Amino acid sequence: MDDTLMPWAAAGRMPKIAIIGSGLSGLAAVVHLRKAGYDDVTVYEKAAAVGGTWRDNRYPGLSCDIASYWYSFTFAPNPRWSHRYPLGEEIRAYLEKVTDDFDIRRCIRFETPVERLVSTGQRWRLVTRHGEDTYDIVISAAGILHHPKLPEIPGLRDFRGRVFHSSRWEDDAPVDGARVGVIGTGSTAAQIVGALGARCARLSCFQRTPQWMFPLLQKRYSGWWKWLMARVPGLPRLMYHAHRLALERTLGPATMGNTLMQRLFEWTCRWNLQRTVKDPDLRRKLTPDYRAGCKRLVICSTFYEAIVRDNVELVTDAIERLEPEGVRTRDRRLHALDTLVLCTGFHSNRFILPVDVIGSEGQRLADVWGEAPRAHRAMSVPGFPNLWFLEGPGGPVGNISLVSVSEIQIRYIVQVLDAMRRRGLAAVSPRRLSFERYNADLAQAVRRTIWATGGCRSWYIDASGDPNLYAHPPARFYRDMRRPDLAEYELTPAQASTERSHFRDQAQERVE
Ligand code: NAP
C-alpha cells in the first residue's frame, strides 16, 4: 500500500496537518508543531495577510486591554512594546514579525478560504476554490469574533452617508470635522468614541445599554525601560507572569462569584465614572443596572473623557430607523450624520463555520452545533476525528490572554499527536460520554458565574441560554489542559481504521 494512503502513524511518516487561519492562534500552532517535529504544515488563510482580528480591525483608538508582555508568545518575547497595553498597529506588526522570524509565511496559502472539510474517518478532505487536498489532522484556528453582526435597523440602506461595521473601517470615510455616529457602547465603541471625540465636529454615541467601564492604566514605556527589558534575561517573562497573575487573581475570582472582588471591580468602575463625569444626569444614564463583569468588562479610560466633551452626545433614546440624512430616534429627533460606525459586535457562535464540515458519519457540524456550539475541552467534537479547535466553543475568554490560551491548547494537541505516533493510532475523537460529562459540568459551573447571574444579556450567552465560556478559575484551566487523558477519547488503531476508512469513504460518497 502507498505510504501516503496509510494512516501516518502506521506508515512511520509525520502527519500532514492543515491549519485554518493565520491569526495569533494559527501562528502559535505552526511554531509549536514544528518545535515538536511536526513539519508538514499548511496554513489556509482567507485574507491576503496574517493577523486575524488584528488584521481586520483597524479602527482609530484600537488597542488591547490585556498587557503587552502577556499578549506575547512565550517563544517570541518582545522587549520593544511601546505601551503597557499594546496598540492595535503594534500587535499587527508583532504578528508580521513573528511570521517572518519563524519562517511561517512559506507554509501559508493566502486568499484561500477553506470551503469544505469531509472526514473519511481518519483523514480530512479539504476543499478550496483552487482544488482539494487530503490531511491527516486539521486544526481550526479560525477565531471567535470575526463575523460582524449588523443591527436590524430599518432603513440601513437608505442612509446617504457612509456606514460600516467597526471591523471593516473605511479610511476615506469623513471623520475629521465631520458628524459621526457610533452605535454601541462595548469595548470597540468605547475605544472609537475615545479616539474620535476630539476629531469630529459632532459625535453621537447611541447607547442601548450602559456598560461598566474599568479604567485602563495605560502607560508609555520609556527608552530606559525597553533597554532594560532587552538586556535583562528573563525580565519580559517575569512581566508576562506578573500581568497574568494580576488579572487572574482579580477579575478571575470576580467573575467566578467572589463577591468581595466583584464589589471591588464595581466600586472602581463607579469611582471611574464619578471622577470623570460630573453631570449627575449623564452619570445616571451611564450607570448600568446589572453587575459589573456580567457583560465583558470594558477596560477603557478614554470613553468617559470623550463623552463629557461639548461636541459629543450620549444618545439614549432608542433608534427607530435610519433615514437618508441620519438616525431617527424614538423621540422623533433626527441625528444628522456624515458617517455611521456600527460597533454592534460579532456573531460569536460560528468558530470554524461557515466552512461546511462533514463528520465521519456524514453529519454536518453546523447541524450538530446549531446555535449553541459545544466542544470537549473546547477543542474537539465527537464524530469529527482528528479535527481540533484553538479558541473553540467553551474556551476561556475575558480573564486570560488569548495568546496564552492558544499556546496551552496547541501544546495539548501536540501531546495527542505524540500519543498517536507512539501507539500507531489513525484517529482520535472525544467519546460522547466524556464530551457530555465535560459540558454538563461546565453548564452547571457557568450558572454560578457573574456572566449568568449578573442580570444582563451579552454575547457570551448563546441559544442554550447559558454563557458559552470556560467556567472555572484560570488555574483549573491550566490543570485541565496540562496533559490529555486518552481515556476520554475514542482511539482508532491504524490497522483497523484502514479497513473502516475504506468503508467510510464509500459511505461518504453516498452522503455527497
Ligand atoms: P459587543 O461587546 O458585542 O458590543 C456591541 C454593542 O452594540 C453593545 O453596546 C450593544 O448593546 C450594541 N448594539 C448591538 N446591536 C444594537 C442595536 N441594534 N441597536 C443599538 N445598539 C446595539 O461588541 P464589541 O464592542 O465589538 O466587542 C466584542 C468583543 O470584542 C468584546 O467583548 C471583547 O471581548 C473584544 N474586544 C476586545 C478588545 C480588547 O481591548 N481586548 C477591544 C475590542 C473588542 P447591548 O449591550 O444593549 O447589547
From TrEMBL:
Entry keyword set: FAD, Flavoprotein, Oxidoreductase
Pfam families assigned: FMO-like
Region spans: Disordered: 490-512
Biased composition (Basic and acidic residues): 499-512
Top-rank taxon: Bacteria
InterPro entries associated with the record: FAD-bind_Monooxygenase_sf, FAD/NAD-bd_sf, Flavin_mOase-like
GO-annotated molecular function: flavin adenine dinucleotide binding; N,N-dimethylaniline monooxygenase activity; NADP binding
PANTHER family to which the protein is assigned, alphabetical: FAD_NAD(P)-BINDING DOMAIN-CONTAINING PROTEIN-RELATED (PTHR42877:SF4), L-ORNITHINE N(5)-MONOOXYGENASE-RELATED (PTHR42877)
Name of the protein in question: Cation diffusion facilitator CzcD-associated flavoprotein CzcO
